[in-house]
Amino acid sequence: NELKAKYGTVENLNAKCGTDLKSFEAVELPVRQPKTQPEHALWELWRRCRERKLREHQRAFYRVVKEESPTVDIFNIPSCGSFASPLFGLNFYETFCDTDVSGVDGTCVLDEYEWQYADLCPQKRFLTSEWGGLYTEKPMQYLYGKLWQEMSAGSWGAEQHYWSFGEDSCNYVDFLDYPTKNGAMLWAWLRDVRRFDPLLLDGCRAEPEIGILYSQTARCHDQAWGFEGEARDSAHLQAVTDLYRLFLDWGRSARVIDEAELLADGFRPPKTLFVAHAAYLPVEVQERLNAYASGGGNLIVIGNSGAYDRFGRPSGVLASPTLAKVTATGVESALRALGLSERFAVSDPTRMLREWTYDGETYLILASRNGTKGQDWGLDEVEIAVRGAVGLEDGLTGTRLRTEARDGYTVFRTLAVNGARVFRIVSGAIAPIDDKAAMARVPHFAAGAATKEAGDLKDVTLPFDDKLYDATAIRAGEAVFSLTTVGSGDRPDSGESYLSLTEGGETVRRKLVEKQTCEMKTPNGRAFKVTCRRNFQMFPFFSEVRIEEK
User: Fold this and answer.
1) How far apart are CA 251 and CA 385, in angstroms?
2) In 10 A of CB 239, how many CB atoms?
3) 311 and 18 in contact (C-beta within 8 Å)?
4) What is the rounded CA–CA span in Å between residue 540 and residue 487?
5) Which of the ends of the chain has fewer CB neighbours closer than 10 A, N or C?
6) What does the pLDDT average to over 411-420?
7) How many whole angstroms separate alpha carbon 434 and alpha carbon 439?
8) pLDDT at position 77
9) Greatest CA span in the chain, whole angstroms?
10) How far apart are alpha carbons 161 and 132 in whole angstroms?
């Protein structure tokens, strides 16, 4: 009935979807992942219908509650597990539109996935629920660090359950209702976070310099359904997550932007916007991206983005000559070409720096990555670099920090425990991205006793047994190993991977085949044994290898 009301005649429906239906009664609900263009069209009509019906229900619920109890705040608790399959039928952005606060369940979600609840809430703060990470034995550092990670991403707080099951080691209280070690740790975190309540509750994360487009349309059309046991992969979903993680690694100020937010009135786009492996994009989204680029925005397109419209029809809309089509390995060089140097750099890769604004001032929150920092509760010294010339003070004590100027950055050292430190900028400001003095690349910090990074080259000791990325070569003495991947653009297992060995100006190359071993020799007689366990031929291209000298 809905299709009949929308299209009037079955001929109009066929013209729109590329189908050859004899009547509206012949339309069948999709029961498998779409492969052909007509299947994509019918799947799109069905999935948008169900998302719209859910939105109508949520709007009605919101309206009724507000009419009866205007002061009651409304939220719901969708799960980040909804991204595991397009069959769950949940559009996070639309779901959060009809709430006062998001109650999303982000239980134990790693930081590279936090954008799902932290960035897809339009103008909303979130309250993560069900801290299931402590239903099993976890180090206390995990709780302390993970809570700070989420608070610094925009959480209003954490809904926590107190429970006692016999003599379970995860209890917060014992059988007499006295706090256990877990309960004492939670109390300590609450004590610390209350020192910054005004900043966290009344402030907000700063506007990003980089945007990463997320398309619900692209994800729902390229994600496998898993009905036949296949992995429920989505090239677009994986690319968004990989970019988010890499920008955290690189000290970039980046946020994920939903395609509906891009179309919203009053949307303020960031200076640079990435669109990665979003093969299926609504025409109106592609047109808005073209307008963004024509208006001076830096639009960086990776892979086959915009190859099809939302009905699976070939699309040439996203083809403006102002677009910069780049490969995954060109992401960092593209940013440098735009003058977009790192906003921050932190010497400890298990930590991140968040920027907050509160009462017209800028604060920096040093938080944990994924709540992990080993088992050591000792104080660690961390070096932090902030782009531009700024003066800083400790947010808790008000003590002015001792800093130095280095390559266009303000650099300082601080002691940190697994949790968070808060700093306030008291003079100057973080330099804008077009500040020529800040375009020098800030030196990478040491990443371990046996590893020293310098630009896109990493010194290692052999044997090397890890992921080798296209973007970063490794050097063992005078031998430099680099990876080149030729991918299909939309499948991690479709393409070819080549390993190059350079020494003394001479280069040899071998094709890497999964679960096979090859030998590489340099002109001066050094021999290396290379075993390839896996090739990942989609952004961010890498191969899992073991390299040892014979």
Assistant:
1) 10
2) 26
3) yes
4) 11
5) N
6) 82
7) 8
8) 83
9) 83
10) 9
